[in-house]
């Protein structure tokens, strides 16, 4: 009899194990899920964006500086062009002045020659005059107005003497006039030559001074242009370096955001797959619950399966604090978050009440009281259908869920959540579970 009981126990354990494996296929996949892609943290993304913004701001500042330098370079080039134009005009003026000076020198030379000729003419006139005076003196002639006339011996002689006197007077007068004209011409020639030479020398000096000023201005403008070009090149090099940093930061930022996008896509895909599995599990469980009818006189694995199916059939039903009982979801009571009275759903203990009522088990309403129902088993030995409990350190039990196999549990989690199947959490998990069936 004892051997038969042992065999029955072994067979029951084997059936439970096989059925638990079947539940594993119904509540999750036995295939390992693909590893998620790397997921940059929000801090990583924030720092990356700050780096991009900082580099972009630096590039913008340097670009503005570069534009300002470009503008200043244009202004310097314009000033340089004006200064070069001034220098070129000064050189033209210098050449004109030099040509004028050369022409003035030529005129001065001509005037010098004319002066020399006038000097010769003066000398000749003076010599002629001297000759006339000497002749008159040597001959003892009275060249006065009455000297020759008083000595006339006859009327004819008087006439001849008068004509001779007139000739002498005219000759002497002509000689004197020639001498004066020669002197005046020489003085004019000397004055014109000096004026032309002085004007040419002054123009040449002015042109030389203008050339010196223009050369200095050109040199200063060229030095400023070179300095500006060097500064422009330095800023352009700095800007290029910061631009490379910006490009690298943007590339890194794009890489992080691409990683985040891939992770989000993976999460969404996993959520969609999980939702599809949960819908399939819920629908299958609901079909089995409906097919089983209202019978509650079940024992063993059938009772466990009925309890799990009833819980699984409520996947997706919203959490409502104080909601749910043995007949199904119900309205709850307003909680600290202001949940309205007309919301219908389950809280954690209400879901357990509904699940176990399908096997004819009536549970207390509150999770901490449900802990005391049935047998206590170590969490390390739990099997599908066992209730597991959670509490914070130093506080009473505050949550209950049902283990469904393969390391998963079904629960009504919290306000804002829905009934779901999730991996069994270990934080806050009590070391003992409640086994009712």
From TrEMBL:
It comes from the Bacteria. GO terms for molecular function: cysteine-type peptidase activity. Residues 59-114, 186-213, 256-283 form a coiled coil. Residues 301-437 form the NlpC/P60 domain. Pfam families: NLPC_P60. Residues 1-32 form the signal peptide. Keywords: Coiled coil, Hydrolase, Protease, Signal, Thiol protease. Residues 28-50 are annotated as: Disordered. GO terms for biological process: proteolysis. InterPro entries: NLP_P60_dom, Papain-like_cys_pep_sf, Peptidase_C40. Transmembrane segments: none annotated. Belongs to the peptidase C40 family. This is Cell wall-associated NlpC family hydrolase. It comes from Pseudonocardia hierapolitana.
